[in-house]
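About this split. The held-out portion is used to measure sequence recovery: a designer receives only the structure tokens and must propose an amino acid at every position. Recovery is the fraction of positions where the proposal matches the reference. Here is one held-out target exactly as it appears in the evaluation file.
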């Protein structure tokens, strides 16, 4: 009970900077620091080594992969029209628990009509892509760039991200903007610690999360080195998103998750995503997304390409009020709010076709 009842006092580091971010009670931040120090001296809570695909004892390699400059491999999956016949070439960044096989779910007819080639990839540590112990927002963007270059997508290409995978899109807009012909984000996860958010608004929204999610994000931000240990303790409040128990206010979202859990799809996706280790996939996602970024997306200059953002107003995982605020701060973001819609946007009928027509400037 002691971890659920601390007073809501502002994170002293953030308050001193006058920034947003959220909602770590000062006693909680101090407690996490002390706990991390104690664990490093006694328990030494290191995650188990990854079971790297293609190595002895690791899962087999069954997907196409390419080798990056640092020696890692990225697994990928192509869809749409053949690469050499495409007018538009897109790199797709999957979300939390996702894989290279995810996409915007546009129809093949529209892909052929527009001439769209799309490549999804297992982000580092997911599926059959090698783990990256130095994974960051920047490395995610550079993985996108290196994948595009290895496949010969040209000097400029499009990027689409969904949910937590949108950190790679923000990274691309910051680190490689001149390579991006256009960008789309679908229900992008936000970091409550981005300085551009008003502190009071971020705190109010943060406090509406389940207690376990509040603590999982605090650990991810302040003490990422103990996240694996924290998440494995049944007596501590941990992420309902990882567990698949987050309350979902949107009826379609709730039905989708219920059906996935009933028919085994939820567990299959989890096993595929985490086969090299849950720390290398889910937990690194959490520490990258909710950790300390090198830049604030709300401080980005206008990029040399159009940027579109879709958000449901009944999203139970990404607060629509923070997305509205972000879009209001960035006049160059084309914001599309979807009424009566939740978080799982790829399942919204016809939306994948709309996304492609919109970012390529084609009307129905």
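Reference sequence for scoring:
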């Amino acid at each position: 009970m002691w971890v659920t009842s601390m007073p809501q006092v502002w994170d002293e580091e953030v308050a001193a900077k006058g920034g947003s971010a959220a909602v770590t009670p000062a006693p909680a931040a101090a407690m996490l620091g002390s706990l991390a120090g104690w664990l490093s001296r006694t328990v030494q809570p290191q995650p188990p080594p990854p079971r790297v695909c293609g190595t002895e004892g690791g899962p087999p390699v069954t997907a196409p992969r390419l080798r990056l400059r640092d020696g890692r491999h990225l697994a990928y999956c192509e869809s749409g029209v053949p690469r050499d016949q495409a007018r538009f070439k897109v790199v797709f960044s999957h979300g939390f628990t996702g894989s290279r096989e995810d996409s915007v779910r546009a129809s093949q007819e529209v892909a052929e009509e527009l001439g769209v080639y799309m490549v999804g990839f297992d982000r580092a540590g997911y599926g059959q892509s090698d783990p990256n112990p130095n994974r960051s927002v920047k490395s995610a963007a550079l993985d996108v760039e290196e994948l595009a270059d290895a496949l010969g997508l040209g000097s400029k290409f499009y990027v689409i991200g969904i949910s937590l995978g949108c950190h790679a899109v923000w990274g691309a807009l910051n680190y490689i903007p001149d390579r991006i012909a256009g960008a789309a984000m679908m229900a992008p996860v936000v970091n409550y610690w981005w300085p551009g958010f008003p502190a009071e608004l971020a705190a109010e929204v943060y406090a509406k999360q389940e207690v376990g999610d509040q603590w999982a994000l605090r650990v991810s931000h302040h003490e990422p080195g103990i996240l694996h240990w924290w998440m494995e303790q049944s007596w501590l409040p941990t992420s309902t998103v990882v567990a698949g128990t987050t309350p979902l206010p949107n009826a379609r979202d709730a039905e989708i998750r219920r059906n996935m859990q009933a028919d085994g799809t939820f567990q299959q996706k989890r096993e595929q995503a985490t086969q090299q280790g849950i720390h290398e996939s889910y937990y690194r996602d959490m520490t990258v997304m909710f950790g300390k970024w090198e830049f604030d997306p709300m401080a980005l200059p206008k990029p040399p390409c159009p940027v579109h953002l879709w958000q449901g107003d009944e999203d139970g995982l990404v607060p629509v009020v923070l997305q509205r605020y972000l879009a209001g701060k960035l006049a160059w973001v084309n914001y599309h709010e979807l009424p009566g819609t939740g978080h799982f946007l790829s399942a919204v009928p016809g939306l994948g076709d709309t996304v492609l027509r919109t970012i390529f400037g084609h009307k129905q």
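Annotator remark: The domain at 65-361 is CATH 3.40.50.1820 (Rossmann fold).
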